[in-house]
Every structure is written in C-alpha cells, then in structure tokens.
Amino acid sequence: MGDMTSVMANAKPLGKLVAEAREGNRAAAERLVREHDGWVRSVVYAVTGRAELVEDVTQQVWTRVLARLETLQDARCLRSWLYTIARHTAIDMGQAHQRQRVGSLEGVVVEEDKQQRGPFRVVAGNELQETLLYAVESLPVLYREPFVLRHLQDWSYAEIGEVLDLSVEAVETRLVRARRLLREMLDGRVE
C-alpha cells in the first residue's frame, strides 16, 4: 500500500514531467530517462540474460520510449508502459533466445574495493560472481525475469505481478522454482 500512496503523491509531478517531455522539453526527457534508467536496464538484463547487451538494448528502449511518449495515456501507468516497451525491445532484438556466457560483470554485480581484499579473495570473488551470473543467465526467461526484478531491483511481488501480468502467488511460485534451479546448478560449485 505504501507504493500506491507514493505513486498517487507523485502522479501530478510525473504527469507534468511526461507532458513536458511530450512537448519536446529536453530537460524533462533527460530527467525521465535518468529517473527510470536503472530499472529499465534490469528489465533488459532480465529478458536477455546478457550483461554485455544491456547498454545497446537500453539505448534502443529509450529511443522507442521517447518516440512513442504521446501514446502513454496515464502517467501513473508509466512504469508498466516502460516495462512493456523494454521487454518487447529486448525480445525484438533477438537476444532473449541467444544467451551466451558473459565475460563482463560491469553494471550487474557490484564489486567491493579490490584493494581491501587480498589477491586470492579478489580472484575467488571474481570466479564466484561469474559462476553466479552464469547460473542466473542460464535460468529460463520464465524464471529469470521475476528473479532479476526481485533480487537485483528489489521489486515487490505485487510490482512484479503487475508488469508480468501474474498473480502474487504465481510470482512467488516462479521465484521458488528459480531459487531451486539455481541451487541445483550451483550444487557443489559454491560454498
């Protein structure tokens, strides 16, 4: 309920921001992108499963969003509208079914300061991150999307259900299955 209250409280400023961006106000469009870019990137990663594609796909998402902004009927629906565009763009770019092993973890996994860890811990930490990321990427998109939205973006079950058009119970089921699959994939590989 707290989320709905904050959405209602921010609806007018968000509505004004969207209206200004529609009218060609560059500062408003830039603010819109800046405020929503982080979670759009997470959506793209959740769909594609490939960190190295996030930048290019996200750029295409924002190009489409700004070109179609006049089709957004209600600014309070901005998040689900953005999600739909981000998801379809990632799929349209043909990346959802062509996952490959990722070498770069930039932008997806936050690293500790390497100078504060010894060389063994740096190497072990990098290997662990790569192993975990590969396992998440290997999840079927059906489970990867809610997993990434929940654990990388800290979305609530209700928010995930809204954008994926699922009940809260279905979201919970998919997350349980994703965690089980990850445990099976990582069994004996991670302590």
Q: Tell me the name of the CATH class of the largest domain.
A: Mainly Alpha
What is the terminal separation in angstroms? Answer: 38 Å
Tally of domains: 2
Quaternary form: single chain
Order of helices and strands: HHHHHHHH
Largest sheet: none
Weakly predicted, low-confidence segments? 1-11, 95-124
The counted number of beta strands is: 0
Helical content stands at 55-70%
Mean pLDDT: 77
CATH architectural designation of the largest domain:
Orthogonal Bundle
Global shape: elongated
Alpha plus pi helix count: 8
**Radius of gyration from the alpha-carbon trace, in angstroms:** 18 Å
CATH homologous superfamily label of the largest domain: RNA polymerase sigma factor, region 2, helix turn helix motif
Look up the CATH topology of the largest domain.
Rna Polymerase Sigma Factor, Chain: A
Briefly note the structural class of the backbone.
mainly alpha
**Beta-strand content estimate:** under 5%
Summarize the topology:
Elements: H1 2-22, H2 26-48, H3 54-68, H4 78-92, H5 119-138, H6 141-151, H7 157-164, H8 168-186
Helix pairs in contact: 1-2, 2-3, 2-4, 2-6, 3-4, 6-8, 7-8
